Amino acid sequence: MSINDFYLKPEFMFSNKLRSFAIFILCLNFLVNANNPQSITGITPGNGVKTIDEKLEIEVTGVKSDFMVFHVKKKMKFLILNEQGLNNYSQFVLPEPFDPTYIAHFPEQKKFTCAYLNMKFHYFRASIKDSSGSVKDAMVNQTNETVEMYRIESGLYADFERKHYSIENLKVGDEVSIEYYYSIPYSGNSFQLSSLRLFLNSEVFKENYELKIIFQSELRVSFSYYNDAVPDSTLELNNITTKIWNKKNLYGSLNEQGGRPYISLPYIVFSVQPFDLLYRVYNSFEEKFIPFYAFYSSIREMGQRSVMSTYHQGVKDKQSLLLDKFVRNETDSIINDTLGYKKLMQLQNVVVENFKYLDDVSYFKKLDILNPRLGEFTMKNELREIGRYNLYSSVILRLHLNYFTAYSADIRSGEVSNEYFFPMYNNDYFMAVLLKNNTTQFIYPKSSQFGYYLNEMPFYFEGTKARMVYLYDYNVYKKPIYDTLRQVVLPSSNVNDNFRKTNVLTTVNTETSALSFDARIVLSGQYSTMTRGLYQYDFTDKTINSLYNKKVYEINDNVKLISKQVSVTNKEFPFTTSVQAKYEAHELIGKQNDTMFINLTNWFNHIIYSDFETEDRQLDFYPDFCGKDTYMYMIQFDKNIKLVGSTEPVEISNAFGKYSFIVEQISQNTVKITSNFIVLNNIVPVENIDSVKDIYSIIQKSNNDKLFFVIDNQ
Fold first, then answer.
1. Looking at the predicted structure, is the pLDDT value of residue 183 above 60?
2. Which residue, 215, 325, 323, is CA-closest to 273?
3. Pick from 58, 69, 64, 56: which is nearest to 118 by CA?
4. Is the model's pLDDT at 119 over the cut of 60?
5. So what's the pLDDT on residue 453?
6. Which of 76, 62, 105 is nearest to 217 (CA)?
7. Could you read off the pLDDT of 678-703 as tens digits, one per residue?
8. pTM above 0.70?
9. Count of beta carbons in the 10 Å neighbourhood of residue 134
């Protein structure tokens, strides 16, 4: 059966059962259980604390969605080892995320974070035993936080509550006992409570750990166990099922830099299936549970179903006619495009380069209640957040092409499957467009002023398995809901595709201590994808290493930018981009006795983890991508100079990659400095982790170096 067989036809309608449940779901209030994207691997710190004992209990009461409640109880006993532990573990924010490793990607104005609707905070208690053995009550200060966040079911903002608890009389060396209890109703929070992932490890070492998951035996709960995470025991008593995990000496490896915990650490995914989710397969006596990922997709793509229906029914209202005109204006001049690729690329280029992105905050606040008016805003080259996916759907259909939606997860945090499908809820998804030869092209819709070109995607989606969904997979009358995992592997790049070449001519005035820079940068592959927007629109991705967000001229706070020009020279892979910048800096020249020096700090901002830790490392290391990054500074002095001190080349090559740092005086007044970093391997096994540290340490030293010289008066 081809995709054309799924086109909207009169008989393709919801059954009464599905229609009733869809209405039920739309009436639910729900909120995303997602970590704030400001942090890559979680909010709980890993150093300065040792957990002596931790017990987590999650009890689900009830079997129907309106009456189900998740009860979360935790008891912890931990030792404060140093000031870092004191600073980090004297404050708690409830609720805590079930999965601190989850990374979500969405427009920042939606502000998804960990909060729930109508939850109850029952208690938070703490006591302290000091180093002498004396026990005292903890002085706990509680504050309430109101969180404004976007709700998908209403398309508007709503306010939610979180609790902050601060222990005021805690000291280094104290042993702290904490227990708390809060409950979350399933009704109103079903979307974030229907695919939970729990790691047994955390960010701190735990001597003793116990996890209990408790539920009524008649409630259907699906469990999947990964990396030897099977329960140690399962008890059945009085129609109550209890699954128990007891572990000792769990390393605090959940937030190891460059690690991917889901690949090797034990974790559980469990999904509750209330009786409300049962439906009867058409023309049979068979009953099945509606897979919850069907609701994620159905609600998020509801607008696209309307777009497709309007298009195939030949509706020619004002908005449709304006969309027709837009597509004609942009593509009529394109010839010899039998596959539809050239027109598709042209339309995506127009959106990326010419469209102004509108965040629709006023709409979310109910200050602007007008409909999306897709055609009107498109003709004005404006992309509204509330209609961005609908625009892509509209133009793809007008090119007589078909498409799937493609849901993927950040490769650093997981993989979408039939068991783990939470990323389908709040992650931006791809449009997988089928050309007329059935090859697939990927569009990652624009969600800020910066946008990605056709088939361009950040490194954290490259090579991932995406779930392909057609609009009517879950809404076709007389057919069972499609529950087969249809997957596609997203494109990936290699070491030769990804490079950054930074060449800078620097002139030095030794009298005024002024330095002038003329930089030429070539970005290719992921270096273009991850840093081009920084130079174009000051766009930053807060889920990645902050060094991606450093411009070449951001040496210190006293740099003056004179001019900047950005040019995308290739709008197809590898998206080559040229950046030119002129800037000036003062206060970079210092003096020690008769010797002068130039401070080279932040001249070589290769992407590394500073002060990289390897002690007790448990996880393999995964660089963001393989690639080459070169800085070359040609420094011209206004006088003849002589270099002072060691200028021996530094070169290293190992299981991770290669690095060289070379300082050469090539004439009486000119010095050339080259810093060249190559990542060669996609994975460094933990037994070779020192190879990563060795290279990172040398780069860190180079990027904080000084160039010593004396004026040559001869």
1. yes
2. 215
3. 69
4. yes
5. 98
6. 62
7. 999 999 999 999 999 999 999 999 99
8. yes
9. 8
